Structures are given as structure tokens and as C-alpha cells.
Known about the structure:
This protein has 17 helices and 13 strands. It is an alpha/beta fold. It has two domains: 61-72 and 81-205, Rossmann fold, CATH 3.40.50; 216-455, Rossmann fold, CATH 3.40.50. The chain has an eight-stranded mixed β-sheet with strand order 8-9-7-10-6-11-12-13, with helices on both faces. A five-stranded parallel β-sheet has the order 2-1-3-4-5, with helices on both faces. A hairpin with a 4-residue loop joins strand 8 and strand 9.
Amino acid sequence: MRPQTDPNDAFDTGFEAADDFAPASGEHEAWTEQAALALDPFSSPREDAAAFAPDRPEPAPAGNPVGEMQQQAAGAMAQASVPRITIHVFCERPQTAAVIDRACRDRRMSRATAVVQPGGLAAAVAYYQNQPTPSLVIVESSDRGQGLIGLLDQLAEVCDPGTKVVVIGATNDIALYRELMRRGVSEYLVPPLQPLQVISSVTSLYSDPSAPFIGRQIAFVGAKGGVGASTIAHNLAYALSERTQTNTVIADFDLAFGTAGLDFNQDPLQGVANALNQPDRLDPVLLERMMAHCTEKLSLFAAPATLDDDYEISHEAYEEVASKIRSTAPLVVLDLPHLWSNWMRKVLLASDEVIIVATPDLASLRNAKNMVDLLRQGRPNDAPPKLVLNQVGLPGRPEIPVKDFGEALGTPPVLVLPFDAKLFGKAANNGQMIFEVGPKSKAAEGLDHLAQLISRRDTVAPQKPSRLSGLFKRK
Length: 475
């Protein structure tokens, strides 16, 4: 039996050792480029998804075979969260403790319980002489060769069955790496470490090959009502599916007033509300039946857009449905309503990309600043949210200059769309996309650029029929 909890023991968390794993600044320019993308070692192993792998961490120094193996392992991982495990970390260097702390605050580690203590490998050996070991032990050691091997042998004598061990060492030695693997060490890391590298290593230890594929989730939210966030989200989803030829799903989470059905000229009998009311019943067959197919590559989870229900749905239902939708396509675009609630916060923090749509006015600036600050704090190892400025140049309206707007947020807009009531109004009334109504417009050019930025691949221009094609038609 486990000893009684010791309130003075920093590592006694109350968990059993066997855890349950459950712009440029011109105001009327069509778009401006974001300078950098986030470092993220997670990528999708499925077809269509490989091209959407986020940028990798900084490459390991030349001549570092262990680092190269770590990079390859990170690149092969599907994006996932660390399960509900207890992690004990024994660090020698303050720099390592700081990296581990950043990793533990990441959204992918939210279900794990981690405790960090100084002392390194020697402290771990002493601590577990009379304490059970948790699911995962991470130890740092500056010892080399037989000194390191000897301490690890002592640790192995006190480790419970099922405990995994990750070693942070100081030697870029492939022979040592292989010897540690032979002795049962789960992973060997070499500084300098990055938070996402640590998360990648931990996730790979508990990854389930039979787990469902996870696509990239792109969340659109308006800084205030009426800024056109839904319109931009719908057109981007269309651009991602048509111009990059990738299967894409758009989910309209604005249950009472969603416009995705109108914009795509669809009126499905079932949609996202049905899924939210029965999340535990969702399987691939039912998901397929609930989605409307707008094009060959684009599917839609439409909102009911009625006021017949109060839509009091738990945040767990939103999280579960969003997770299951991600298993249906490499790219999932979420059209989120302009409101604030527990489920909105959780969905935004769990998304791979967050795009805030605003207009160049003071209310949008204030609200966008609040969102950016919250997301930066809650997603320290992810890309900051991207900013889209819409309806720029509205006649008669005083506006905050694009450059000043971006500087106030600390992030320049990745897309600046000029006000064009005729183009957007015609598309909305016809149930069409901007690419169909004005394929050569500045708005279409800007949305195409945004699709390239989000997808990290070049878009494909629409194919025009050859002038000679008619000569070869059957008569």
C-alpha cells in the first residue's frame, strides 16, 4: 500500500503510481505578410496532412546524431495531448527547470500533473529509496559514461514496473544513446532544449497507433459583432479546399445566428447542434450523415440558426464534438460566435491557429488586445493569434491607421481587406464565395494569400480550358 500523503513532500501529489491514461501598412492594400510562423513539432501522418506540418524546432547543431534522431521523432508525431499521468522531474540546471516549466504550462500538457525539483539523477535515486515512482521520471545528469550508467542502474533498482524514464544528458554520443535504450531508458535528450521538444518526447511515449487521426483546427473569432469574421472564415475554408485541393470541414458554432448555411446555399436537416446534443453517439458514419457536402473537398457542419432552443450545452460537449470533427479531415475551420464563455475559451486555447477579425476602430482594438493577451498567456509555445483587418476604408468613418492598429496589438495584420460592399453583398445574397463572384478582385487575392499562409503550401490557380481542347472533342 502507498504511504500516507506527506504535506511536506513536494513530490507527494496524492496520485497513485499507476495513473489512469485515459503590412506593410497601407490602409487600402489587400494583404500584408506575417513574418514568422510558430515552432511546432507536431504533424499529421495521414494523406493530405503531411503538407500542413508546422515548422520544426531549430535544427540540432551539426554533428549531433542524438539531436537529429529527436528531430526525426518529433516530425513523425501526430498532434496530440499528453495523457493523465504524473511526471516527476529532477533537474541540475536552472535553465532546464525553466524549459520544463514552460512545457508543463503548455495546452498539450494540461491533463498531466508535473512536479519539478532540483538535484538531478542523484537526487532521484535517493528520493525513490522509500517512495513509489510515478508514471514518468525525467532526470538530468552531467555525468558521462560509466558514472551516468551507474546511477541509472541504481535508479532501475527502485523503479516500479511500468515507470518510464527520460534522461537529459550532456553528451551527444550515439553509442551512449544506444546503451541507454538497451537498458530500458525511454528517451535521451541533449540541451539546448525547447519546450515543444520536451512535449513531443513525452507525447511519443504514450502515443496510441490506433488513436484517430487529428486534423489542424483553425478558429475564427470576431473582435466584435459585425466585423465579418464568419464571411472571412467561410471564404478561407473554400480557398483551402479548392485552391490547395485539401479536404476541409467548416463547423458553424454560432447555433442561433450562424450564416454558413446561407453563404454556401445549403439547408441540411442535421448539423452541429445535433452533434452537440449527442456527442457520445458520434462515430464516423454519423458524422458523415450530419455534414453537408458543399464541394468535392469541402464539407459543412451547419448551425440550425433558429431561436427555438436556448442551446444550453456544456463545454465538454463542444470539446468532444470539436475533437471528433478533427478526425474527419486534415483541415477544420471553426466559425465561432461573438460571445465569451467557458467553452469559447477552451476551444480557442485548444486550436492550432486562431485568427481574430477586426475593423479599424477603437472597440475592435480593445477587444482584440484582450484576446491576444489571453491567448499569448494561455498558449506560450504556440504562434500568436493572427490578425485580419476587414472593411478598411469605409466611406465617412474615422479609422485607426493599419500600422498603429498592429503596433498596439504587438502583431501586424496578416491580411487587410478594403471595404467593398458591392462584391461582398453580391456574394452573400447569391450564396456564393468571393472567388466565384470576383475571382480577380483584391479580396480574392488577399484570401488566396491567407490560404497559403495557413496551409503552408502554394495554392493552385483555377485551370482554364485549352483553346485546342475543342479540336479533340468527339463529334
